[in-house]
Amino acid sequence: MAVDTAITELFDAAPAGPAHPLDPLSGAEIERAGSIVLASEYSTSTLRFVMISLAEPAKPASLTFDPADAPPRQAFVVAYDGAEKMIYEGVVDLGVGEIVGWTPVPGRFPSYLAEHMEGVEKVVVEDPRWQEAMRRRGITDFDLAMVDPWPTGYYGAQDHYDNAPLLCRPLTFMRSAPGEHGYARPVEGVIVTFDLDAMQVVDVEDHGVVPLPRYAGNYEERFMFAEGNRPAFTQFRDDLKPIEITQPEGASFTVDGHGVSWQKWSLRVGFNPREGLVLHQLSYTDRGVERPIMYRAALSEMVVPYGDTAPTHWNKNVFDMGEVGMGLMANPLTLGCDCLGEIFYFDGVVNDSMGNAVTIPNAVCMHEEDYGIAWKHTDFRTGVVEVRRSRRLVISFIATVGNYEYGFFWYLYTDGNIEYEVKLTGVLTTGAIAEGEKPRYGNLVAPGLYGPHHQHHFNVRMDMCIDGPDNSVYEIDSVPEPDPALNPHSNAWITRETLVESEASGGRDWEFSTARYWKVVNPSKLNELGSPVGYKLMPRDVVPSMLQEGSAIFDRARFVQHNLWVTRYDPAELYAAGNYPYQSPDAQGLPEYVADDAPLEDTDVVLWYTVGAHHVVRPEDWPVMPCAYIGFMLKPVGFFDGNPALDLPPSAAACHCAPGSCSCAGHGHGGHGMPAVEHADAELN
């Protein structure tokens, strides 16, 4: 871990202590797990490690964690033997140094290994068939090539496990000079089929020559103002004044290992190669009583289907988490750039394919942000003003998956709200088109260059625990009063609650006309008004899926067919598209999880919510995309007896003032240099 600013000494002084059962594996633990496997009877010369992560203990054990009686630390190992074409799942007891479980998983392919990401480009560029396709386009300097190893997807029997090795279908881009932006010059029409087991090219398809786009699309400082860049700029802005975030007394949060306390919130921060950031045991202390809200929350899967029929685009349907790994792709974050203020960082520790630990410094950023007013009221009769400032705790990480960057942010607010946000940026995956033509299934971003239509669907798994594990889920619709006798003025409306009774009815969809939301309640815990305590899931950025029945991706990504799924807790059910979606033809994950139609009333429930980005590309998205923001919110509904932010202290005299005594703290200015105006008391007409 790493810490910025004056809080360093405070955290360095904390005792080490035993690992909490939910702490992510340390580098030493990862390497111990790898060494135990490599020294075992299961090891072969072709066995590689896909992911080594914490084997989370059973939920009751971690809820009652006692340092003197901790459950054993265990590692969950996913390994792949390319020679056998077999995945193995293992559980390694790190304390006794033994493998306590080793299970083959036939018929499935793993996500990428680290060596796949690094080795494909070199092999492709040396292939004579690929070189000949480049020469047909007038390309002879192969050192300028960028070859992106796109997951192959599944498009017929030829891709089936029984008929094919582990495949990818790399796409080629060509820089105009060393270090320049390669996505500005896609090589259209050339598709490579690549055997990842043998690390060799299987086939090179050439669907015809399309001219390379002629303009650069550079965003790096050293290239940005060169002639011929699109869009054309001549200098950086020179009128931005500094914004400095300071907390003279330090941050308001405390950190003990991976445990975090902030305001009345407490939680544990986890990290693993597949999901990246994981939150555990999220609770809120309400007037001295710690009240659980969520046991575990993390991204469960995402898929990016493209809507272009061109040969190099129609088969782009990537499960960026299940086929690649969000934690593996996490960025080291930088103070003042990725995160601003008094920052605490958690390192991310993952593995390479040989079982070595790889530390991603500063993978998770945590800091506080001022968030405007929390609440305010002015009594116009007395002139008394009460206002409080809101702030939020931000816990985030950013992953680069090929051309795209995804920022994943959890926000905790002083009023009990919880927000999840995805920030999408990075670079479009581009296509070339003859100048003067317009693409049917995308939009131009520069002459001869376009971005295909596509969507992003992110599914977040939330293991709810509202004042305890036994919860129920209701769908809430607002509808006009149906009884005319009760609605003489035609203005009345009511809320209608529908219990989600079982998993068969657990696939739910948002409805605009009824302002639909969902509520998780604890039927056995009532507030002082006699209603069950709860939290509601407030939809935002609801995107209808463009996936069409009959497409290859339709079954593979069935989780996008509902905005919300509700299941009964099962520790083995973690991923919306299943454990191993790579090159898989079938509907894994949520369709399988709900098949037993488990009852959902007054039990341990899990929410799976999908939020989407509908990307009709625009010129302003080139050459690097401004952030797009999507997400959702969880808000207390009857969980508290009133406004939980009522006890926020005034932050300045101006936040609590009597008539005539109010003023604005800070450096206030009126428009165009005029002094700020204070209004005298006035009668309201």
UniProtKB/TrEMBL annotation:
GO annotation terms (biological process): amine metabolic process
Named cofactor requirement(s): Cu cation
Domain named Copper amine oxidase catalytic: residues: 243-646
Stretch forming the signal peptide: none
Active site: D320, Y404
MF annotations from Gene Ontology: copper ion binding; primary methylamine oxidase activity; quinone binding
Keywords in alphabetical order: Copper, Disulfide bond, Metal-binding, Oxidoreductase, TPQ
2',4',5'-topaquinone modification, residue list: Y404
This protein's record includes keyword Methyltransferase: no
EC number, UniProt record: 1.4.3.-
Enzyme kind, highest EC tier: oxidoreductase
Posttranslational modification: Topaquinone (TPQ) is generated by copper-dependent autoxidation of a specific tyrosyl residue.
Cofactor note text: Contains 1 topaquinone per subunit.
Domain Copper amine oxidase N3-terminal: 111-211
InterPro entries cross-referenced by the UniProt entry: Cu_Am_Ox_Cu-bd, Cu_Am_ox_TPQ-bd, Cu_amine_oxidase, Cu_amine_oxidase_C, Cu_amine_oxidase_C_sf, Cu_amine_oxidase_N-reg, Cu_amine_oxidase_N2, Cu_amine_oxidase_N3
Domain Copper amine oxidase N2-terminal: from-to ranges: 20-104
SUPFAM superfamilies xref list: Amine oxidase catalytic domain, Amine oxidase N-terminal region
Presence of keyword Metal-binding: yes
Record text on subunit structure and interactions: Homodimer.
Family that this chain belongs to: Belongs to the copper/topaquinone oxidase family.
Annotated PANTHER family: AMINE OXIDASE, COPPER AMINE OXIDASE
Protein's UniProt name: Amine oxidase
Top-level taxonomy: Bacteria, Bacillati, Actinomycetota, Actinomycetes, Geodermatophilales
